[in-house]
Write a structure and sequence with these properties.
Chain B: One of its GO terms (biological process) is ubiquitin-dependent protein catabolic process. Chain B: InterPro entries: SKP1, SKP1-like, SKP1-like_dim_sf, SKP1/BTB/POZ_sf, Skp1_comp_dimer, Skp1_comp_POZ. Chain B: This is Skp1-related protein. The complex is a heterodimer of chains A (about 180) and B (about 170). Chain A folds into two domains: about 1-40, no CATH class; about 40-180, no CATH class. Chain A is about 30% helix and about 30% strand. Chain A has six helices and seven strands. Chain A has helices spanning about 10-15, 20-25, 30-40, 85-95, 115-120, 140-150, and strands at about 40-50, 70-75, 80, 100-110, 125-135, 155-160, 175-180. In chain A, helix 5 links the parallel strand 4 and strand 5 (about 125-135). By secondary structure, chain B is mainly alpha-helical. Chain B has one domain (about 5-140): Potassium Channel Kv1.1, Chain A. Chain B is built from eight helices and three strands, in the order ββααβαααααα. In chain B, strands 2-1-3 form a three-stranded mixed beta sheet. In chain B, helix 3 (about 55-70) crosses helix 5 (about 105-120) and helix 5 (about 105-120) packs antiparallel against helix 6. The longest helix of chain B is centred in the last third of the chain and has 15 residues, at about 125-135. Chain B is elongated, with a radius of gyration of 20 Å. Chain B starts with 6 loop residues before the first strand and ends in a 5-residue tail after the last helix. Classes of the chains: A alpha/beta (about 180), B mainly alpha (about 170). The interface between A and B is large, with 42 and 44 residues.
Chain lengths: ~180, ~170
């Protein structure tokens, strides 16, 4: 008897308990397990994050903290850095790493408009209890609003830096928590 | 209503018969359904008649586990979406699985028990065996995983290189 002949309900449960690093190794074991990794849910992680902080914004805040790897993704305790020119290749890889994933809280910070569509596509088949936006500039707020419009089914929370243009706040959708940071 | 003193005769795929207390079989959704829904004479549940491939040796292991867990609360708690831990296997269950290490093919025994737990709908046993297998795999190298899971690598070197190249995104 092979592990791959075990009931689907068992394999699905097993794969939900695997760390991402274990999924990476399992897809290298054989063709059948490579397919199993792609076809199964990755389970629940308390925290995840997409962090894109590339250009200096109009408020003069500091630029990229990640040099040539401006898109940083965190799943649990795993950090992933993706060069800008490989973002859409990475989306293909993501579909081969799991079919779905759940998060308690997923933080988003995107200061680069060209990355908004990537974020929307990346979050496909995600289940997120709270999508948490950290807004430190007008550009980040604009991008956050675009992402909210693209994934309207998630509950949101937001932390806003005091330098944000107050007029922009009228465009905010309803959300669970809106937190104003004080200087 | 479950009558704990009622005896139930189970017939395995290889023709053996085992009589057990209803106190044990109440943990098997399949057997309870068979007793409740099917026309069962003399409380006998012929497993093979409903195409459940559970042999005598595997059923004895299942009954051993059921005997230890006869007083577990029912219904078994529904899994939540957050459930991913595998480090909470009771000590008796750990020893129960360790005991298989002395057998010639422990992995085949584990797979047989998993299959039986699924067919008989014994959620607690299925959950425990899932955690056991997860613990065996977690943190292992590719080679160790192949050895534990008895898998043959059927990739070409080029295919392996391509997968490693993709995996590298997560390993920087």
């Amino acid at each position: 008897m092979s592990i791959l002949s075990l009931p689907d309900v068992f394999l699905n449960d097993l794969m939900r308990r695997m760390a991402i690093q274990d999924r990476l190794n399992l897809r290298l074991t054989c063709r059948a397990f490579e397919r199993t990794v792609a076809d199964t849910h990755a389970g629940y992680f308390e925290e995840g994050e997409i962090y894109v902080h590339h250009h200096k914004d109009r408020n003069g805040l500091r630029g990229s903290a990640y040099g040539k790897s401006p898109v940083k993704i965190r799943i649990g305790d795993l950090d992933i850095k993706i060069p800008n020119h490989e973002l859409y290749d990475f989306l293909g890889f993501r579909t081969r790493l799991f079919s779905g994933i759940s998060f308690g809280r997923f933080k988003i910070h995107v200061d680069q408009e060209s990355t908004v569509e990537f974020v929307r596509l990346f979050l496909t088949n995600f289940k997120i209890e709270v999508l948490d936006f950290s807004v430190i500039s007008d550009i980040v707020l604009e991008n956050s609003l675009k992402i909210m419009a693209a994934v309207p089914h998630f509950p949101y929370t937001m932390s806003i830096h005091p330098l944000i243009d107050a007029e922009m706040l009228q465009f905010l959708p309803p959300m669970e928590v809106l937190h104003f940071l004080v200087e | 209503r479950i009558y704990p003193l009622m005896r139930v005769t189970l017939t395995t795929s290889d023709g053996a018969s085992v009589t057990v207390s209803r106190q044990l079989t109440k943990h098997s959704g399949f057997i309870e359904k068979a007793i409740t829904d099917m026309a069962v004479d003399d409380n006998a549940v012929p497993l093979s008649a409903v195409a459940v491939d559970v042999d005598d040796a595997t059923l004895k292991l299942v009954i051993e586990w059921l005997t230890e867990h006869r007083d577990d609360a029912l219904p078994y708690p529904e899994k939540t979406d957050e459930e991913r831990r595998a480090d909470d296997i009771p000590a008796w269950d750990q020893a129960f699985v360790q005991k298989w290490d002395t057998k010639e093919d422990q992995q085949q025994t584990l797979y047989a028990v998993i299959t039986a737990a699924d067919k008989l709908d014994i959620k607690g046993l299925l959950d425990m065996t899932c955690k056991t297998l997860a613990n065996k795999i977690n943190g292992k190298t590719v080679e160790e995983m192949r050895e534990i899971l008895q898998l043959e690598c059927d990739f070409t070197e080029e295919e392996l290189a391509e997968i490693r190249k993709e995996n590298a995104w997560c390993e920087n």
